[in-house]
Every structure is written in C-alpha cells, then in structure tokens.
Structure prediction request, 760 residues.
Amino acid sequence: MPKKRSGGGLSTTQQAAKFLGVSVLAGAVMAGIALPAAGALGLAAKGSVQGFDEIPANLKSPQLSQRTNILDSEGNQIAQVYSRDRTVVELKDISPYMQKAIVAIEDSRYYQHGAIDLKGVLRALNKNAQSGGVAQGASTLTQQLVKNYFIEEAGDDPTKVAEATQQTLGRKVKELKYAIQLEEKLGKKKILENYLNITFFGEQAYGIEAASQRYFSKHAKDLSLQQSALLAGIVQSPSRYDPVNDEAEATKRRNVVLERMAQLGDISQAEADKAKETPLGLHVTQPKNGCITAVKGAGFFCKYVENVFLTDPTFGKTREARAKLWNQGGLTIRTTLDPQAQDSVQSSIKDHVYKSDSVAAAATLVEPGTGKILAMGQSKPYGYNKNETEYNFSVDRDYGGSNYGFPTGSTFKPFVAAAAIEGGKSATQEYSSPYKMNYPSPVQQCDGKQWVNTTGEQVQNENESEVGPYQMNKAMAKSINTYFVQLISDIGLCPVVKMTDSLHVHQGDGSKLPQTPAIALGAIGLSPLTMASAYASFADRGMYCTPVAIESITQKVGNEQKSIPVPKSTCSRAMSEKTADTINTLLRGVIDSGTGQQAGLDDRESAGKTGTTDSRRNAWFVGYTPNLAGAVWVGSAKQNIEMTNITIGGVYHSEVFGADTPGPIWKDAMTGALEGKQSENFNLVDIPDENDHNKGRGNDNGNDNGGNDNGGLIGGLIGGNTDGGTTDGGTTPTPTFSLPDGFIQGNTNGGRNGNGGNRG
Prediction:
C-alpha cells in the first residue's frame, strides 16, 4: 500500500495513479467508448460512477421555466407571474457582443474543441491531482449547459438541486456523455443560444433577455460592448459580481472580460481600453412578479385565476402536476376580465368606501348566459401592509376567500320564492305575516325528518307597522321576514335546497346549506361570486352557468405556441322560464317601489334585492339587468364591526342598510360597465295586485319605503323607520336565541369567531 507523504495529502504514487486514471477517463469519454467499472485507479473514492454505457442514452432538454402573462379579455396585460424570470429568445435576437463576451470569458476555445476541451481537462486534472479534490473545473459551455439542464429539472427542490450541483466524478461523467450528445445533435450555435437562455445572471434574472431588461431596461439584441462584458462577467458568481450591490467589484470583472476579448481578437485593444473607461450605466428595472403587481385593482382576480389553475383537474390530475405546469410558466392566459367593467367596479368602490375604513367592500360582475366573470374588486387592496389584505372577499375559501363567506340577509329570499313558484305556488300567495311570530314548526326536511322549534325561537319584521296579510310581491318589495318564514314552512325545506343546489349556492367553505328555516333570512355565509352567479340565472331566464375566469391558454414551447385546454362554463336549467320571469318581475318591484330604490339604474331595466344582517355586520345588494349581474357586499371580514354610527367613504351613517351603501356601489359599477352596451328588457309577468288587507298594519302610507331594508336583523328586523310610516321600531326587543358562536363567519386570522345572527 502506498504511503502518504509526511506533509499530508497523496503520495507521489497516488497522485500519478489518480492523474493516469482520470486521464484515461477523459480519453475514453473523448472517444465515446465504455467506461470500465468503477473502482479501478481510485475512481470509486470520488463518488458513485456508473459505467459510461449504463448512463441513459438520451438527455431530454427541459422545458425552461419562463414568465407567464395574464391578460384581460382584450389582450391587455394584467400581471406577470413567474417562478423564474426568463424570456427565451433566439440567437439572432442576442447582441453579437454578448455572444463573443460569454465565449471569451467562459470557454475561449469553444469553436475549436468538441464537447470536451482536452487541454482544459488536462490542465484541471493536474491542478486537482495536486489538491486531492475538485479544485478546478474544465467545463465547456456545452458541459455547463448540461449542468444547467439538471438544475432546471431540479426546480425548487433543494435536495435535487444539491444533487445536480455536487462536485463528484460521477456527475462529471454524466455531463461528459450528455455534452457529446448535445454537440452532435444541436451544433455550436444552438448550444450557445440555449446556454444564454438558461443561465442565471443574478437579481432574479434567468437568461440573457431577462438580465438585459433587469440591468439595462433594454432587449438583449441592443446590448453594447461594455454592457455585454458586464453581463458575461456576472455568470461566474452572480452574487459576488452583482453590479447593483457592488459596483466596484462588478466593474473589475467587466474589465477582465473586455481584456480577454481583446486578447482573443474579438475587439481591438483600443476598443477594450475605451470601454473600460465608461461607467456601468445601469438602468435597473425592478422585478414585477405576481398578482400584487396587477393593474386596475385586478390583483384579487389575478390570484383567483391562479387558484383556479391550481385547483381544476383540467390542468393536471394532481395539484403537484398543476403546480409544476404553473411554475414552468411560459403561459399566456387570456381571461374574461372586461377592462371597462373592472374600471367601473374599482372606481365605484373607491368613491364609496375608503381602504382605510374599518369595514370593506367587495363586488363581482358576471355575464348571464356565459358565466364569464367580467369584474372583481374590493376596497382593501391586495397586499400585506396596513389597510391591505390577501383575502379575496368575493370568492370561496378554496380560491383565496374568507373562511365561510358572509351572511347574505334578505338577498337569499328570492331563492325561497323561486323554489315556491317552481313548485306551483302563485306570486299572489298570501300569508298572515304578523309583525312578530314564532318560527312555524314542524318544517319538513329532505331526509324525511322534521325541523322542530323546540326553544320557541322567534322572528320579526323591520317595523311594527309591517303587519300582514301580504302577498308575495309586496312581501318581496318590503322584505317581510315573517312572510318568508311562513312560505318556507309551507313548502318545506327540500324544495329550497333543491333550488339552491341547482343554482350552485353553497357556503363559503364549500359545504351544503343547513336544512333550517333560518336560511330563508340569509343566516348562512356565501360569497359575492356565488350570489352574482345565482342571480345571473334569473337574468338568463332560468339557465345557470358555472363561473369562468379563463378564456384560453397557450404555452411557449421552443419557438412555437401550444394551446392548453381550459375549463368551460357548464350551463344547465335551474328553473323554468316562467319561474325566472316571475322572480324578475318581483325583483324589479324591489327597485321600482321597494327597499332597493336607491340602486335602480336610470337608463335600463334592472332588478335586485337588498340585504342587511343582524347588528348590521353585513349589508348587501345583489342585482342584474338582462345582460349583467352583480353582487356587492359591505362589512367586516372578521364580523366584529357593527355598522352603526360609522363613517364609510367619508359619509356618516347612523345605521348602514343594504340600500344606502352596497346599493349605490352596485348602481355606479353597473352603470359604467354597461355604458355603450345594448339596453335589453325582461320578460315580465302579470302579478295581480289583490286587496292589501290593511287590517292591523298601522300607518303605512306616505312614500311606502317600508324601512328601505334599513334593518337591524336580516331583511330588517330591528331599528330603522319606514320613511312615510309613523312607527320607529327602534325599541323592539331583540330575539333571545342565537346560532352557535362562529356558525356563520370565522375569523380569517384565527382570532375571535363572528356570530351569524339571532335567527335559530
């Protein structure tokens, strides 16, 4: 056994053996012949080395991760997202100076040698044999390209990245074999093009085009000599030679590249000297990555698109597969977002609710008949600073929304009415509708069981003057709670559940609605997108279309654009045309003479419903025209703000109602979104106005604004007055029952749970 020298390290015999062994390896690789089994000449000690012929024959070039562009429906950019900022360009679109500079400093004999530079290998072998390790590399650009392929395939997995970059003889052997293949398959120009597109230039920039934009705000084809030399010098150590953080070190490195170019005859010495005297001339463009950079307040819509992509099996069988495709990027995603509608929504919200207000507003517009989401915005901007949020209040939890959605109040009542009419009830159906009553009991459920009011839970109307009997059109216009509790008791819970299922109405956490009469009054948390999509079915005469945000996707693969399938809206009949037409007539009445008069559009037919929940924690307006539907919510995400004696958007409110804050937001948003669009009409039905049966109703004359849905409890149970009536109603006792704490809206930040309301 050879002895070590007294000074440590390898003996002369060992050095010679190692040098000989690796030289044989180099020669074998150069000849493309099989590598003998590992173990001879000490090779096994330096890492796991497969037989050369055992390495897989073909190296598959990875699809390089690139930027993804998210566009609106007209092709305008909303945002760019990427895991690696890269834009692949052809060699003809890269400055000749850059091509020469990278070759000069990284592999000056690039055009003279094959896949492996034997002179470089021998030089490195001698150095490494002396050090007893891998102290110096001799990688050609082709070998570096192979190494970058391995790194690209590793993605963000730290273990795989470590394997791809480990300094072992085994990895070097793989590099050598694949480098030979690439030289034969691609040729020098294509290898150089691929190398310049894959390599990392620091400052989050991958590839020469991204680097050129980052440091000089120009295209790679326009790089000057000194700019090219700077970028070429960065590659060896992007952190050490970062010109943004260490201009002096970067300048020294740039000048080394310039001198090397002069030595090789790429430029004259005079050109090099002149370039050395110039300042770096940086014109840095800060990276803009992610939905946080979205324009037109579309950050939440952008994030919704991302969540749809990561959730929908159309884009891959598993979330891991979908995430890989998303991170790979190179996508052009054309969405349904209408720039006119989005501008209108954001402008309206900004006018009525400030981002610094203690409550927030969210609005979503959907196109009936297609399910296209045309606009989505909210008052708290997308972000992580004060008065910003990452929660999208317009959507369900699984798509970035709040835990459970928000209680909808009286905006739920049209679903109960639709279920009743679809089942044969007339819009003239009349109930006694007293001011106050116990929940009727028992009420039939879908499973054959019955809901029973075992605790004497009660419900009441907004004002003491609101005493029946009422028929459906008056009850809807005035949002009479006791009417709809009697209606749901009459028809049972199952028809309502069937109707809401056909309208895809579900809680914000995705679960089905509970079978309890309290759902008639909107005690359950839903999202604005769910509400807008459901109301769009009324506008489209009974056809429900699932909401969609993505029109088309293409992916850049090489120099070609590959089309990727996208999820399509699925439309189905949720109710008969007659039922939908009847609801449209009822809800037009809400705007014409009921609680929603402040929201009515001036230039076209519209219909809708107000909603205000207990303690005024939530206020809603959901409405539509024949060609556009929208939902607006105002409230506290944590459900801990009672909107009384509150200033919103610079306007003081003693009490917030569904009509006076969400209503005007909806009106302004819809007006702007529909400007220049065709005005269409509803197919209305005749609902006979029978005797009002005024007995016991008190003085309900005047303007008959019936409380304007200015309710305390859902639909208006406590507080407010009737604007033309004589009863204040503000001193009415509060019902004594309540839902379990947190039943409706959890705290999105993990704190105190909100209370959904005192409705059983």
